[in-house]
Amino acid sequence: MRKIVLSAAMSTALLATTLAVTQSASAGTDTTQVGQNPRSTRSAATSGTSATQRFVVLYVAGTSDANARAAITAAGGTVLSSNAEVGYALVESSAADFAAKADAAVGLVGAAADRSIGKAPADAVSSADAIEKLTAAERATLAGRSTLKSPARSSREEPLASLQWDMKAIGATASGSYKTEPGSKKVTVGIIDTGVDGTHPDIAPNFDAKNSRNFVTDLPDIDGPCEVASCVDPVDVDDDGHGTHVASTIGSPVNGLGIAGVAPGVNLVSLRAGQDSGYFFLQPTLDALTFAADSGVDVVNMSFYVDPWLYNCQANPADSPAEQQQQRVIVAAVQRAIDYARSKGVLPISASGNEATDLGAPGVDSTSPDYPVDADGNPTEARDRTIDNATCLNVPAENDGVVTVNSTGPSGRKAYYSNYGTEQSDVSAPGGDAYDTPNGRTSPKGMILAAYPANVAKAEGTIDEKGEPNTPFVLREKTKDGKDAYYQYLQGTSMAAPHAAGVAALIVSRYGKPDKAHPGTLTLDPKLTQAILLGTATDTPCPVPAEFTYRRVSATAGEVVSTATCAGTLDDNGFYGEGIVNALSAVTEF
Fold this sequence. Notes:
Radius of gyration: 23 Å
Mean pLDDT: 87
Distance between the termini: 31 Å
Strand order of the largest sheet: 7-8-6-9-12-16-17
Structural class: alpha/beta
Number of strands: 24
Largest sheet: 7 strands, parallel
Low-confidence stretches: 5-49, 114-125
């Protein structure tokens, strides 16, 4: 699961190196974007400096863009861009008291801003990779070239279908849901992620470059050198690999190559809001949700969460007033964008998170804020924060109107890393569990196999100079004309969410009606899509006993034992929500 980072305050020097403009096609929305630095946590009011700072300012609902801009100007800010539909602006100011004035201004909810803290450490996203890719030490225990050849299959299956235990678990197979409803090109799924490799041979047939957008500017400080002069990657590029894996799980086509996704016939668009490094800014994410709403997208997949706070609280006593306001703005802004998207026919689907935490009783968070960091990458301002479930949210997983998805392994158990909770869990879906084996040792086959960009494989060193995979976590297939198509095993709630998104796309394909606002496409009320998704999920009871024990044999720590306790009923419980999504039932039983 990736991170969404609050747009940070930026020094004038950094601004000069990363300035770029991206125009959204959303009608009536100015979403001009400026390069942003996510490494920050304190507001200008707290820092006491007069250096130029950057802020996300949220309007009070119903305030006109003109009135909000006037209030921002009066407080000492300059509007760089604004989004009238959702009601926020990206603002620059050198006034040390701008945040305080904006917070008190009529018509403004408040301003969230941070200072630039320079270059991020190289291992800044290693904690996320440690779950999704496993640690380097754990992968090394299975080091060596992949010797797997395309296994035997029926004439109707894709070459690697036998490795897709996840699709079998939800009935998304050639003999299952594909026969009844493979998905329609009149239905669009938006992938709000790090980008999508639209040139991958097992994605390209379903990739809609014309309606894809990149809302971010690469930042050399965190992303490495820009690949293009503008630092704005083309819409069919993914230099991280996360978004490509998600897109492939949702909608890789049936084309005689590699794998097929849950909904192999749907239209896929990349709504890139994540940096190459895997971090997400607030403003591009809001822009992506708004664009999805205005462009006729039916389902969006959101496999990310918000930094610098693991939980965004309304008024945690451990936080400063400026930090409290920052968190309130994050929660309110994301909720505003989600509400707008749903009002336009979009169903948002989110991963629940990989902290193995009961979200209904999170306890003490000692990791936030996770920025700024010292030279070794350790947070310098993290502190113990007692998390109140009633006033603190994991965003966007706990926002209203979002379908939150937990992860399961090959045996059907809740994955060891997956978050859970009776209030927060809507459904569950296969997300992989490398330790879900008879002896608790690592197996890549317990993870999720999906498309992998060749450029990322080269950069990560998982293929050799001849293009051969050098790890069993990566597979290579060949197209009929000899082109390489790579696939990688990953795990996480980020991998579970797209299974649910794919089923939601099948539901719109099966039961949707012509969309008058977007001729030639289908639409379905998100309330109905969600009701069918949850109502046709396979009821899965809590384990017996309810306290489940996980035993993992780690390459670095030996045997690791952990527990998680499930509460609830057969119909709705903390591990599985209303059940494990079922593609076949969704298109045949409603």
